[in-house]
Amino acid sequence: MVKLNMAERIGVTNILPQQGDILTLRLGMQIAEIMYPTADEQKECEIKKDGNTMAWNEKGMEEKEIILSDLQLSLIKQELVKLNEAKTLTPAHISIFEKFMETVK
Fold first, then answer.
1. Which of 8, 72, 79, 93 has a CB 3.0–4.6 Å from the CB of 4, allowing a cystine?
2. Are 101 and 80 in contact (CB under 8 A)?
């Protein structure tokens, strides 16, 4: 279990692999489904999408408990390690990296 706000949840979906074997891609799709805001959250947070950007109200800044399987956690951590080793992490990844690599066991 990890607590993430809306920006972090969307950030996780952005690091998921876009290519790979069928099991990895299906696992990534499962994670994206968990992370993406529900219809109720979209209403409650007044989520607006404009091209490649999303915006939300203050409610979207609240953290939500996200339950992930060990396999799902492993894939996210694996992708974060890849980004770190390639030195392609951005400031948007910092809180995600800290939460998954430093607090989730």
1. 8
2. yes
Buried b / exposed e over 6-35, threshold 16 CB at 10 Å, is bebbbbbeebbeeeeeeeeeebbebbeeeb
Residue 100 is given by DSSP the state I
As a dihedral over the C-alpha atoms of residue 17, residue 19, residue 24, residue 26, rounded to 10 degrees, the angle is: 90
Closest CA to 38 of 71, 15, 60, 11: 60
Report DSSP letters for 8-72, one per residue: HHHHHHHHS-SSS-HHHHHHHHHHHHHHSPPHHHHHHTT-EEETTEEE--GGGGS-EEE---HHH
**4-58 confidence digits (pLDDT tens):** 999 999 999 999 999 999 999 999 999 999 999 999 999 999 999 998 889 999 9
CA-wise closest residue to 84 among 68, 71, 102: 102
